[in-house]
Amino acid sequence: MRMPRRLDWKIGRLCATIGLAGLIGLTAPRAHAAGGLSISNPEGAAVRALVIGIDDYQHVRKLKGAVADATDIVASLKSMGVADVVELANAQADRASVLREISALVERTGSNDLIFLSIAGHGTQEPERVKGSEPDGMENVFLLPGFETTPTGSVERILGSEFNHFIRQFELRGAKVIFVADTCHGGGMVRDIDPRAAEMSFRQVPRYTLLVDELKPVSDSNDPKSELDLDRTAFLAAVDRYTKAPEVRIPGVDGLRGALSYAVARAVEGSADINHDGKVTLKELFSNVRQVVYQLSDQRQNIVTISSPAQTPDTEIAFGLTRGVVLIQGPAARAASGPAGTAAPVEAQAPPPAVTAKASTVPTLAAVPTKDLPIGETPPLRLTSPIRLAALDGKTNYFASVTTKDIPVQAVQPTDNPDLIWDPVSHDVIAWGDVVAYGMDVAGLSTVVDRTAAIRELKRMAVRSPQMMRIWPDDRQQKAGQTVEVDLSDVASRAVLLFNVSGDGTIQMLYPVGSDPALARSTSLRLPLRVGEPFGAEQIVAVTSQQRMVDLETALIQLNRRRASGQMIKSLERYLPADARIASIGFFSAP
Length: 591
Description:
six-stranded mixed beta sheet; Rossmann fold; alpha/beta; seven-stranded mixed beta sheet
């Protein structure tokens, strides 16, 4: 029996198995939108949109990023050539205005049009009005800026069934609909928030009781009983019915945002065209957005995607992408005509049998001390935005001696939206509700800061070209001795590099090690890992390519067991091949 590779310092390899999974691939960078790429309707008709974002609630807790979400999606649609886009933000999104604009959009809609509907804001649940329409008897509700539990305020909300009513009207006119709901209706969390963390913002309000409800829902006899009774509609929801949607930090973007809206905006700009054939299927759209949200939310958010029963996600085209004339440095230059990219569509193949890849034995890493990479061995990575560091007691004098290689540090108060909070009593380091490192004294904070900057860059890279990867069995805090499994999809015949970045920035090479095959032999690669001390944050990073990445692999091996997160980023930037896909998934462990 093979002895497991343990995460005694971090993650222990058990063995690698090859199995089966769905298909995804390389996404296009955002530069496509600025390079002449336009969204198109595969049916040849118009593309239209109504986009709603609400932060400024008058009687319930305000949000911080929903208007920015709406503005981002609107900008993306317009940059991709969509002319009929209506945006309603904050006070503009009262019930009368929403109903007026969506009704007008229905009137403008023609046969085979593609309709984008998007709303970002607070949600909640109420008892269903149509008995049997919801599996748990609760209906999703979207709150508008003036909502309150008074008779007058009760009007300022939109029921989920009302959106379904209007979606049916679009369908009756022969249109297809993509509905994006960047809000939440449940009340749970994937994992608990450390009580010492800064307050997080969620897009959900507690359930309430309306003693007098003056809302008169819009409905008629054609209304679907549920989303599954619609025919040509795709739904993307921020979370399931039982969890909350957090507002998150996006690398390189000021303030907080909704991960779903951000991912949809990038998908619209072309990143969801996985095989570069100029056609984005529902499966490509769902897979791309799901992975980006999963990574940006630090695994606190798993989106829900639903397509109408008549649609086949593998083949149903959500939207197309075409190129046009591009202005470059002044002179006009005509871009290559036809669909974006030249790769042929992926054909379905009979799944190969699952096989097991030999995993070589690796010494327990706890027995090998980690060390800092000597300053000057490679030029430091210099990033612009500082890491905001706070002490739990509000004192800033602790950090006078904290010097970093890769990023400036800004000492702030715990209430000033810090990136890291250090507890001077326990010496734990907390980031966005999770403990990154336990028992870290001031002298070690610099490596945690450098690591935080590196993870920020990894997230940015992974958004541009996501590789599908999941952590099983769940996204809760993992305990000592537990086994988690890293599952990569669509890696058949691709070279795979897999490594971990620990809470103190130490790099640990996970795959390939020893006799592990460099090229995956089947569609998925599953790698079990055992959790051990020291505990805190683990960032599992996968890089895949069609050819073996010899230079990058060599560089990562040289960084193995070293606190070298900045140098790791520099190696990625230097050696990443053009077709590289990146996954960057964190999980958190505790004694």
